[in-house]
Amino acid sequence: MTQSNGKPAGSADAAEPATAATATAVHGAPASRRPGRKPRSDGAASRERMLEAAGKLFARQGFDTVSVRAVAKAADVNLSAIGYHFGDKEGLYRGVLRRLIEDSEPVMGPAAERLTSGVAAAAGDRAMLAALLAGFLRHLLGSVLVDERMRWQMQLLLREFHEPSAAFPMLLEERIHPLHNAVAGLVGAATDRAAEAPETRLLTAAIIGQCMALGAARTVVCARLGWDGYTPERVDFIIRTLTPAVLAMLGLPRIEGAAAGRPA
Fold first, then answer.
1. Which positions ≥6 away from 90 have C-beta within 8 Å?
2. Low-confidence spans in the chain with pLDDT less than 70
3. Cβ-Cβ contacts under 8 Å for 238 (sequence gap 6 or more)
4. 3-state class of 30 per DSSP?
5. Which of 27, 200, 222, 246 is deepest in the core (most CB within 10 A)?
6. Domain 105-261: which topology?
């Protein structure tokens, strides 16, 4: 696979075995019981192990460093199984990004739909817009910071943002645009600008970027605060701390009490 910098693919000789995600998102279902997942045959189960193992390796080491042999070892499958299911390493990588889109849909899809319908229902009411944004932040952060699978998937996304692959247009079209467009609708309503305005899109990127950064910079955040990890109580503290700042960024009124915790 050729990245935007044109570097040739390399290889790796060892990798950790992949493990199933077991963390439960705040106000959400365990990753293993997400909507849309069905029991799989042995062949399909092997395919899922390959996607999980490859995703973690690509997120941690980057595409060029990971070899298909390392993925096969981590997934406990024969090397030929990767060729059978994905063709080559490029096909495997694209499969990982496709799975990322599918895995994040139960979190991102409904949140985007509720934002869009909520902005229309608010009809400019700033208190309603504030509650809508607060609920969205709680929903998104509660997933990004607690769901273990989404943790490495966000790391992989950040690699794509810094060094986009040939599969980046798929991510942009199917995951990034829908979420950003929904948030931009709210930002535009709050700032009295068009959703397509450059200022609106920059503020949208800043809001979503803050949520992703808190997931990606977990080590720094925990080191600075003396934490040993993100617990549900600490995630709630992060949400309660960040929400007023984002509301103030858009000139929306501060909300208190139960309204601040209402899901998007």
1. 1, 166
2. 1-41, 257-264
3. 141, 145, 214, 230
4. strand
5. 200
6. Tetracycline Repressor; domain 2 (1.10.357)
